[in-house]
């Protein structure tokens, strides 16, 4: 059970209801907080409307947590809330006890599993960055399609492809081991002598092991 207090702009805080009577005022965070009672909430609902974005959360909260829930409901013309009712979970179809305002929500076990699963995935900032990245890539695909190669963003891919060496290094190393000159083999492969020497030495180390 909790007592609710509101400030001058109808922000609210909740304090655990103890054995003592709640104070009329609290002073916290630089604000004066007035105890929210059924008559006060009724007056606010009449002035602003029960569906006002500042009032609706208060109505839900007091019906759920306040020790005066039935009085709040009566003042607002709402049916008296039931603390818990047996309902079926919409996820697992298991029977569990839920507050009357939560009958359409998953059971606590399902909510805990969903929270654990959500915590394992990307965080909201990461998802936001991924969405923005996807938007930019889609825009680039429309305006500069030459930047893409096989569906992947690769600026200057033609230039980079010409620098890639996908050669039969094993056969080249075998020729060098059989006595062919590095310069001759490099000229036939279309690569530098240094790259050929590196690949040959790499294969020599493998053979030594």
Quick overview of this protein structure:
The protein is α+β, with helices and mostly antiparallel strands. Helix content is 49%, strand content 15%. The chain has helices spanning 38-48, 56-65, 69-76, 108-120, 124-143, 157-163, 169-177, 182-189, 193-208; strands at residues 2-6, 12-16, 25-28, 31-35, 85-88, 95-98, 148-149, 152-153.
Features:
9 helices, 209 residues, alpha+beta, two-stranded antiparallel ribbon, 4-stranded antiparallel β-sheet, 49% helix, single chain
Can you tell me about this structure?
The protein has a four-stranded antiparallel beta sheet. A hairpin with a 2-residue loop joins strand 3 and strand 4 (31-35). It has helices at residues 38-48, 56-65, 69-76, 108-120, 124-143, 157-163, 169-177, 182-189, 193-208; strands at 2-6, 12-16, 25-28, 31-35, 85-88, 95-98, 148-149, 152-153. It is of the alpha+beta class. The longest helix is centred in the middle third of the chain and has 20 residues, at 124-143. Helix 7 packs across helix 9 (193-208). It has nine helices and eight strands.
């Amino acid at each position: 059970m909790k007592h609710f207090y509101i400030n001058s702009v109808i922000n609210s805080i909740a304090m655990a209801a103890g054995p003592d009577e709640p104070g009329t005022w609290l002073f916290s965070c630089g604000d004066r907080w007035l105890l929210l009672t059924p008559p006060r909430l009724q007056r606010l609902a009449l002035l602003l409307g029960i569906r006002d974005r500042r009032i609706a959360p208060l109505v839900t909260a007091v019906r759920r947590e306040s020790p005066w829930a039935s009085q709040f409901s009566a003042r607002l013309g709402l049916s008296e809330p039931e603390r818990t009712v047996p309902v079926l979970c919409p996820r697992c179809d298991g029977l569990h006890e839920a507050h009357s305002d939560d009958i359409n929500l998953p059971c606590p076990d399902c909510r805990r599993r969903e929270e654990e699963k959500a915590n394992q995935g990307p965080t909201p900032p990461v998802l936001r960055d991924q969405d923005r990245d996807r938007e930019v890539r889609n825009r680039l695909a429309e305006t500069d399609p030459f930047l893409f190669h096989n569906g992947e963003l690769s600026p200057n891919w033609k230039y980079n492809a010409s620098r890639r060496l996908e050669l039969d290094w094993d056969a080249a190393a075998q020729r060098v081991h059989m006595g062919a000159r590095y310069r001759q083999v490099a000229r036939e492969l279309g690569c530098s002598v240094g790259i050929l020497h590196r690949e040959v030495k790499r294969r020599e180390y493998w053979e030594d092991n």
